[in-house]
Amino acid sequence: MKAVVIREFGVRPSLETVPDPEPSPDGVVVKVEATGVCRSDWHGWIGHDTSIALPHVPGHELAGTVVAVGRDVRRWRDGDRVTVPFVAGCGHCGECASGNQHVCPDQYQPGFAGWGSFAEFVALRYADANLVRLPDDMASETAASLGCRFVTSFRAVVDKGRVSAGEWVAVHGCGGVGLSAIMIASAAGARVIAVDITAEKLKLARKLGAEFTVDAATGSAVKAIREISSGGAHLLLDALGSTDTFQNSVKCLRTRGRHVQVGLLLGEHRNPPAPMARVIALELELHGSHGMQAFRYDAAFNMIASGRLRPERMIGKRLTLEQSIDVLAGMENSTATGIPVVTSL
C-alpha cells in the first residue's frame, strides 16, 4: 500500500510503498477513505510523543470501510463504515468498565502507538470496544473532520465544561479544536468570544458562531474578555496549548468559573505555572480533557443530524496523500483556516 512514512523525527516524511497491514485478533483493517491532518500529527513528527517508534506512519483522524476482521471480533464485519476515537481503550480494565475508555491506562492510539491513517489501509486494535459506526448519510470527509478535534471539543465543552445557554464562553486559539469548540458552544446557546492572532481565523470563528472576537496580537486578551463579558467568562477553553494561553484563560474567569485545558501542553510548555491564589480565592475549576469515548459519538451525531452542528463547514483544503506531507511539515507556521483533509491518493 501507499503510505506517508516518517523515518527520522523532524525530517520530511516520504510517500512510500509498504506492506499491507493484517488485523490483530481483536482488531480490524480499515480502507481509509478520508483522514484529517492534525497538529497532534505534527507533534508526533517532531518527536514529542514517546510512544512513536520509527519508522512510523502518522494519522489518527480517519473514516473508512472495514475490509478485514480479526478472529476475536464480534461486532464488526467487512463493509461496515466506521471511524474511531484517537484514544482507544482496551475494553477490559476498570476505567473502560466505568465508561472512561479515553483515559484507559492500556490505551492504544492509532497514528502514535501504532501505524496510522496516512495510508491506503490502517489496522485498528480493540475494535469491539472502540469503533464507531458512521451514519449512512455522513460523508467520509465530514467524519474524518470530526477526528480528534471536533469530538475532543465536544467532550471539553459539553461534558467537562458543562456549558449552558446564556453563559459566556471564551476560546483561546482558533485552530481545528478551537473552531470546533466555538461551533459547539454556540449551538448550545452560549455567547462565545474567540481569541486568536490571525485575522482570517477570527473571521471564520464569527462565521461558525463567535459573537465577539479578540485579536490577542493587538492588546490584552484578558482585559478584552473581562470587559466584553462584564466581569469574566463562565467557561474558558485553552484550545492552543501554551503557558500564556493557559494562564490568560484562568485570569479571564469570573468567580466559580471553569477552565478546560484541551490544547496539548508539550515541550517547553509541558508544566506551566498556575495562578493558584486566584483559583483558590474564586473557587475556580481547572479541568483537563482528553478525547471522547466511542459511546458519546451518538450525542454529537444527533446534533449534526438536527442541523445544530455543521462540522463540514470547518473543512479546509482537500488533499492527496502526497500533498499531506507539505501540510504536515509546515503546520507549525501555517495560517491556513479550516481542517485539511486527505480525500484521495
TrEMBL record:
First and last residue of the signal peptide: none
Source taxon at top rank: Bacteria
Molecular function terms from GO: oxidoreductase activity, acting on the CH-OH group of donors, NAD or NADP as acceptor; zinc ion binding
Pfam families, sorted: ADH_N, ADH_zinc_N
Gene3D superfamilies for this protein: Medium-chain alcohol dehydrogenases, catalytic domain (3.90.180.10)
Domain Enoyl reductase (ER) stretches: 10-342
Cofactor field: Zn(2+)
Keyword field: Metal-binding, Oxidoreductase, Zinc
Annotated family: Belongs to the zinc-containing alcohol dehydrogenase family.
PANTHER family linked: ALCOHOL DEHYDROGENASE-RELATED, L-THREONINE 3-DEHYDROGENASE
Protein name stated in the entry: Alcohol dehydrogenase
Source organism of the structure: Oricola cellulosilytica
